[in-house]
Amino acid sequence: MSIQLSRTSYGKSAVRVMKLVKHADWHEIKEVEVCTLFEGEFEEAHTIGDNSNVLPTDTQKNTVFALAKDHPLNTIEDFGLHLAKHFLGQNPQIHKVRIELSQKQWTRINDQGSPHPKAYQRGGNEKWTAVIELTKDSTRIQSGIADLLILKTTDSGFSNFKRDALTTLKDTEDRIFATSLTAVWDYTSSATDFAALRESVQSNLLSSFANHKSLSVQHTLYDMGKRVLDTVEPVSKIDLDMPNKHNLLVNLAPFDMTNENEIFVVTDEPFGVIKGTMEKR
Amino acid sequence: MSIQLSRTSYGKSAVRVMKLVKHADWHEIKEVEVCTLFEGEFEEAHTIGDNSNVLPTDTQKNTVFALAKDHPLNTIEDFGLHLAKHFLGQNPQIHKVRIELSQKQWTRINDQGSPHPKAYQRGGNEKWTAVIELTKDSTRIQSGIADLLILKTTDSGFSNFKRDALTTLKDTEDRIFATSLTAVWDYTSSATDFAALRESVQSNLLSSFANHKSLSVQHTLYDMGKRVLDTVEPVSKIDLDMPNKHNLLVNLAPFDMTNENEIFVVTDEPFGVIKGTMEKR
Amino acid sequence: MSIQLSRTSYGKSAVRVMKLVKHADWHEIKEVEVCTLFEGEFEEAHTIGDNSNVLPTDTQKNTVFALAKDHPLNTIEDFGLHLAKHFLGQNPQIHKVRIELSQKQWTRINDQGSPHPKAYQRGGNEKWTAVIELTKDSTRIQSGIADLLILKTTDSGFSNFKRDALTTLKDTEDRIFATSLTAVWDYTSSATDFAALRESVQSNLLSSFANHKSLSVQHTLYDMGKRVLDTVEPVSKIDLDMPNKHNLLVNLAPFDMTNENEIFVVTDEPFGVIKGTMEKR
Amino acid sequence: MSIQLSRTSYGKSAVRVMKLVKHADWHEIKEVEVCTLFEGEFEEAHTIGDNSNVLPTDTQKNTVFALAKDHPLNTIEDFGLHLAKHFLGQNPQIHKVRIELSQKQWTRINDQGSPHPKAYQRGGNEKWTAVIELTKDSTRIQSGIADLLILKTTDSGFSNFKRDALTTLKDTEDRIFATSLTAVWDYTSSATDFAALRESVQSNLLSSFANHKSLSVQHTLYDMGKRVLDTVEPVSKIDLDMPNKHNLLVNLAPFDMTNENEIFVVTDEPFGVIKGTMEKR
């Protein structure tokens, strides 16, 4: 028997960079969190402690800040690709660079009816995400959205499901449907304008969610993914993760009250897990 | 020596209620979290385990849901007052009821340019808060905002501060000023339209923050509080808690780069604590 | 009408210091988190941006690290007092210093039956806490424990409570009693050996919790506090916060099973709030 | 172009069960959190909203509680396997069942020198984990540990690493090495006594960590994994995830103090990511 080191990766996570661009009368800010990960010729670092191939994670952090200085950070996809090319180009011992990025949302403060040119407030919970994987021979760019809390109050039911001896759930034609959406999508090679593509994917996801006659979370998840693939040409594949954040009808019968889908208890646990991947063929 | 039970309180926390109101063509939702707390004649519950004065916390939870059914939940202040009056009115053994409430923000999904009548997304991190304290002889209503992340990129400095042997900080005339604002305010007895008052307080806080020539966090905190007291007549007192969420300038000099307030590292720890209370006299 | 700045405080929070002491054959570590807060002559810092009285929060952070170098950090109470005296002694503009400290638990790794002299693992969730408040004329030292999760499986009931029209809870003589204990206690002026006092308080709290015939959370809270005051002479007052972390009996009747207090669902929300303060008179 | 639903899964997460077993003079408790996930013939649930194959996630939750009633919950591996067989056996539409489990640690309260038979406190941060994957033709059992915080104060260096123009890190022969260990291991088919195997894996991981002369996190990670594979016969493969939780040396030079590895600042962000998989061949 021998022991094989079958896979390794290392890097720096939670590198949080804020870039401020000052124009004459207005400013822009970008808040991006970066994780860098390398795979490659690191066997002897593990087996005998030879660090000569190991570019420190501290240097990776420095690199994120230094490269952010001269890059516009227009999109996290472009910045991630820039970082990946830098690391792969300078380090022949690295076979694969993976850059994970997320961007928090800031909107301009509404100051007496106008967006303020230099003051901001956090705009929503959701993050924009991207993952870049680069090797000598391949480039993979994924974009995504994480933690987008959405809820609809109509056109959602769940009935005629499989029952067994432990089933107590009743059919419903009318419930609250709430989820914390995480989406990740791949592109065909023709994608370049990542900002416009993101906007298009997000508006299609939201519009499908809002308007679909939902027979189950699965049913709506599929409609949302299909609509993106049908509509946003350079998207080749999409993963959707839509946990069912239950708003449960409160039983008011003991108090001689009827609850016609008016009063719900909001719960975090347990929650339904619903995931699906759709792709073009 | 004797042992005295000098203060007690009990209640139910994290009661999360969602109220859905269905109009013909559009819906409304309110997501409110409630904590109920009682003080009163509970000494023997502690000393000898006599529970005859103890209305269960489970009943308090039931009450929140049952009373939400018939109350419009137009504002958390009004709903909290309604709850407090119910508990105090039915329970002579209770001397003081405290109701703490917070409301999460939902905005309508933008569906191809129009707000959707029945679908929503989480709108910002911040929560609206209220605290009601009711006794036989007194009513106190406080409103507030919690976790409102705001940031400005100009008109913020900190200089000419006190120095000692352990001071290494340098004067700055230009820095990022970011905070997670928590505000709590009291009213004079004339307050009734809590929704309009809240909107007025929040817009004054944001406008002051955005436009103030800040010589320190303290300096801006005072301007924000003063502006609310000057402008929003029924507000008698305001507490502001404005932790300094440091965005630290990254030293790029080792890489022969200058960083003219362009690249910052976003940090959570440690953070500055800045608190102040202002009131009318 | 005039506007008065009725209260202010400022300082630095989440200063996390690790002190390592190397003895010949074994090491000691102390992980302490510190928050420093000042009150005093800071009115003009707020009203006109005059920072000449403002010792920067950055300097406060530096001071924590510099003073930790020469202090043994034997107890957080002693270190907190040392910090408070330093700040008050050097800064006449400060009227009151408040130092909040918490210490995380590390235990030695069990290496084949023996505690390792130089390797550790986190030992439990709970934190040890202390608060020092120092003015020219007064010293207050409080010690505490936070987030100590404890649970008992017997001798816990809740019955004969007050009922109203919204009460659905049933009497129980046998339930799981779980809480996340937070305790804070004051000393008479004779206290000096804070390590031994802490150990005594904690063992009395745990022993009372484990063995008390509990008729309610309130009933046990009182027994725990009383036992500390009866037993640990220099403790003059104790606050206990014992949220009722509900382990709810699962209804297995629909599956033709009886659940004789065997299977529970663990819940975080909602939870009961039970607080009490006891003091010697 | 057609759109294909290439992968789906669904289930229930965060099902938190507490099992209490009462012996004559002492009790046992097990706190286990379960996630159930199914893959199989669910295409039409997505494409046309046909739920006839969909066993509700609510039923999955019920099943966890009902099966916990008659199972000893001796190990999470055995309970997970029991659950997986139940679901796969009763549901021909399911092709693969995945059960994820984690168990929190409770230790008996030390009551005046003896472990209390019926009272407990949380024992450490770490969780025991298991993942079961079952199909008609295959069984995979993985065990693990998550969130085990460990730290060593000696025998840890990092030097002679690769440098580039953005490297500022200096060689060190003496640093604090702290990590939050997550380990997952696979078994050969001969494994049955999962409790004893877990104990053996954990003690080998800790002993290696404590005693290894570490030239890097990677170097120690490899030693830890190799030692498990060398020593614990039925373990065929192990993944280790050992984020470098930096304790950074504080620069006390500006205060004319030397810091000979005594005072560190504890940081959460950014952190190094170090992962590796080792297996027998």
What's the CATH topology label of the largest domain in chain A?
Urate Oxidase
Shape designation of chain A: globular
Query: Compute the gyration radius of chain A: what is it?
Result: 23 Å
Number of strands of chain A: 10
SSE succession of chain A: EEHHHEEEEHHEEEE
Measured by residues with Cβ under 8 Å of the partner chain's Cβ, the largest interface is: A-D, 81 and 81 residues
Please describe the biggest sheet of chain A, giving its number of strands, its sense, and whether it closes into a barrel.
8 strands, antiparallel
CATH architecture of the largest domain in chain A: Roll
Number of helices of chain A: 5
Provide the CATH top-level class of the largest domain in chain A: Alpha Beta
Mean pLDDT of chain A: 97
> Order of strands in the sheet with the most strands of chain A?
1-2-3-4-5-6-7-10
Structural class of chain A: alpha+beta
Notes on the structure:
Four copies of one chain form a homotetramer. With 281 residues, chain A is α+β, with helices and mostly antiparallel strands. Chain A folds into two domains: 10-137, Urate Oxidase (Roll); 148-279, Roll (Urate Oxidase), CATH 3.10.270. The first copy, chain A, has five helices and ten strands. In chain A, the strands form two sheets. The first copy, chain A, has an eight-stranded antiparallel beta sheet with strand order 1-2-3-4-5-6-7-10, covered by helices on one side. In chain A, strand 1 (3-22) and strand 2 (27-40) form a beta hairpin. The radius of gyration of chain A is 23 Å and the shape is globular. The model of chain A has no long low-confidence stretch (mean pLDDT 97). The interface between A and D is large, with 81 and 81 residues. Strand 9 of chain A pairs antiparallel with strand 1 (3-22) of chain B, so a sheet runs across the interface.
